[in-house]
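Repro:
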Amino acid sequence: MILAVTIVATPIISVAQAAEGSSSDASTNKRVRRTQTLRPEIYEKLEAARVHADEGRPTEALNALAALEKRKRNSYEQAMTYNMYAYVYFNQDQLDKAAQAYEQVLAVNNVPESLEQTTQYSLAKLYLMSDKYEKAISALNKWFAMVAEPGSEAFILRAQMNFQLEKYAEALPDVQKAITMKKEQGNPPENWLLLERAALYQNKDFKGLARCLQDLVVLYPKGEYWVQLAAVYSELGQPKKELSALETAYDQKLLTRENERINLAQALLAQDVPFKAAMVIKTGMDEGVIELSARNLSLLGDAWMLAKEYDKAIDIMGKAAEKSQSGKDYYKLAQIHTERQEWQLALNNVDKAIKLGELNSPSQALILKGLALYNLKELDHAAAVFADAAEYPEASAAAQQWGAYIDSERKRLEYMASSEI
């Protein structure tokens, strides 16, 4: 079972979005910074640079900012100039230069706390987008120290970073906190649940994984989630729940792949529901979802045989044996004919099985052959076959009993024949 998650870093956002209405101060005792202003003429230059960038003129935008740097500016204006550099570079996918510009913003003294927080958060996201995970989590932790009540997106972001660093135990609490917070407002995004799923899997928390997948199948029902939930139930040793998950997905027409239908059929067979297993396979073959391969035909033949639908079992298992030319399939065919007491057909097929070989239990094939010969009244031949079977330790007792029985039967027949003379 593959449990993966795609890490997506969204574009730079504001602290208001990140903190979702959080308090901006980590401590009420912090000294309040003196507010600086952005003069109108500086604002106009910055706005002109932004327009150039938005309209696809990055060179003009950078030239406008370079000209602005030659002017005398207060610390807030300097910080906003670097902030606009970051904006221009980010729009050009020059993430390293954008990150350097944000670092320059943070290096300016006495900038407004809101700008510092916005920049710190955006820098963390840029590092994540550049696969610089250690730097990303360091920057984000600094942001966490700045705010009193971080929002759910910040926790999911830190969980992503820890996951990329393979710190799965540290990623899990953050993603679960983010999901809990989001559930208070509505449904958590699918990607958040996928991240939780991946973290739970890496932490080998299969009970938690089952709960997470239950959320996924309810909120975002897909066949793959039902299949994974069934696999987790199998891992937890809960076969009835495993089957229930697969049946629910099947009833909702969410099992669209061959392996998913085959898994359902095998689960049904394991729970002694062979007729439905056969119908699942047959329907899949009729719909073109399940290939008419020797392996699949053999499984269908098994299901029909266990369901005691012997005519169907003989037809399908015969096709499987013709395709595979496998001793195993011919042996199964012989077993079906034995159930119907069609001894000559049973003998013909078990002979093919023994000749082709690769049987799971050659001794059982010999026992079946001996039984067919006995019922065909070929007692001497049957006795010889049972003698061969007795050479196998696992079949020795049964074969010897049959041999003794045949001896007594021959004596009985000889006695009856002599009595008639």
